[in-house]
Amino acid sequence: MESPIFTGLAVVAFGLMVVVSGGILYLTAAEWRDRRRRDREQRER
To answer: From which domain of life does this come (predicted)?
Structure first.
């Protein structure tokens, strides 16, 4: 008993999960990059 509404909700839920995971990965990479830049600036002083 597969309803198109449940299928649509599952697709939307999967899409949101992908978007949120991508955002977390982006923020993690940005923080890592900024931390490396700050450390490099500290060593140059």
So the answer is: Bacteria
DSSP 8-state class, residue 27: H
pLDDT single digits (tens) 13-44: 999 999 999 999 999 999 999 999 999 999 98
pTM of the model as a whole:
0.74
3-state SS class at 19: helix
The helix/strand count (H/E) of the chain reads as 1, 0
Three-state DSSP class for residue 45: coil
Burial call 4-23: b when 16+ CB within 10 Å, e when fewer: eeeeeeeeeeeeeeeeeeee
